[in-house]
Amino acid sequence: MTSSPADALAISLFSELLTADQLLRNRLTRVLPDRMEISHFSVLNHLARVQNERSPAQLARSFHVTRGAMTNTLTKLEIAGYVHIRPDWDDARRKMVAISPAGKRAREAALAAMAPVISEMVKDLGVDKVRAALPVLRELRLKLEAD
């Protein structure tokens, strides 16, 4: 089977995205504090931004992961003291998750550790190139979320 130029372009695009994702995750994981993982930071960042409790199922949907994967992440965050997990007062079968004061401090420490890495990459690439790439990457993300 022969691939078209459009197929080759798509393969190149996704190959670059996947490789860049892996390299960025590795680089950021190395600077995150206290054995924090990218998934931990992502959940803390989400909870800090929404400033409201979320159920594990809501979080799993937000991150496009299984409930089991989210439960694993939340268990680690709870053990670290970064989130509070309580029963849902309206439905005792469900739980609700909120970021703790320690989780807010851990998120801030992670942001402080990651900022120089990210800033250096933007500086090296050039602000104009990054600004130009964002609409395309955002559109791609929205397309993937819609499918």
What can you tell me about this protein's structure?
With 147 residues, the chain is mainly alpha-helical. 72% of the residues lie in helices and 7% in strands. It has one domain (5-146): Arc Repressor Mutant, subunit A (Orthogonal Bundle). The chain has helices spanning 5-31, 38-50, 56-63, 67-79, 101-125, 127-146, and strands spanning 83-87, 95-99. It has a two-stranded antiparallel sheet with strand order 1-2. The longest helix is centred in the first third of the chain and has 27 residues, at 5-31. The two termini are 26 Å apart. The mean pLDDT is 92.
What tags apply to this protein structure?
globular, 6 helices, Arc Repressor Mutant, subunit A
List strands and helices in order, with pairings.
Elements: H1 5-31, H2 38-50, H3 56-63, H4 67-79, E1 83-87, E2 95-99, H5 101-125, H6 127-146
Antiparallel strand pairs: 1-2
CATH class: Mainly Alpha
In the CATH scheme, what's the topology name?
Arc Repressor Mutant, subunit A
Helix content: over 70%
| Mean of all residue-level pLDDT scores | 92
Strands, count: 2
State the CATH superfamily name. Winged helix-like DNA-binding domain superfamily/Winged helix DNA-binding domain
- Measured between the Cα atoms of the first and last residue, the distance is 26 Å
The rounded Rg comes to 18 Å
Q: Which descriptor suits the 3D outline?
A: globular
- The domain tally reads 1
What fraction strand?
5-15%
Q: Specify the biggest β-sheet.
A: 2 strands, antiparallel
